[in-house]
Specification:
7 strands, 2 domains, three-stranded antiparallel sheet, alpha+beta, PH-domain like, 5 helices, four-stranded antiparallel sheet, about 190 residues
Length: about 190
Amino acid sequence: MSASYKIAISDDKASTYKWVTTLIAALNFFGFVLVSFGKAGQEREIIGIIGVAIALMLLAFIFWKGPKRHFIEIGFLIIAFTWAFCGLFFFALVLACFAAIGLLVNQPKVLIVDTQGVKMPVFPVRVYPWRQVAYIILKDDILTIETKQNQVMQFNLYRGSSPKEEDFNLFCKQMLLRIEIAPPGETSL
């Protein structure tokens, strides 16, 4: 029996992030169109055309079905540098901050259940020691956790990423029983 389970859970906010990035990329596209056709000089027009091309590539990449490991955030950083070359440092700073937040938020969602407790894949990481967990069960690729403060959490697991239900549920049951029979002064779990 394993002493640690790493469980990949589905990301409910992925579609929201996709639409927000699409909106921001489209706004950048139109912003660079305005810059390239404005009366700001030939150098700024060329940078604007480069920005239009980068924003179009970013929009295409957002809707691409292949792996995207941080390419969208890197695209926003490139667009931020393009805005800086245009002399529009506020736009560059806003996009750089958006890209940095995107790098933090778009980490793989992996819930860890081990002898210490349950570690939730949120920012910052939230840990529920076993003494705070009232109930935990894995059934049909759905993980249900209830805390002693009556907080109930359910997570959909990716197909094939879930551990064997019997082993996982037995491990969790043993951890919860261990807490119940522990002496009152022991708080290691």
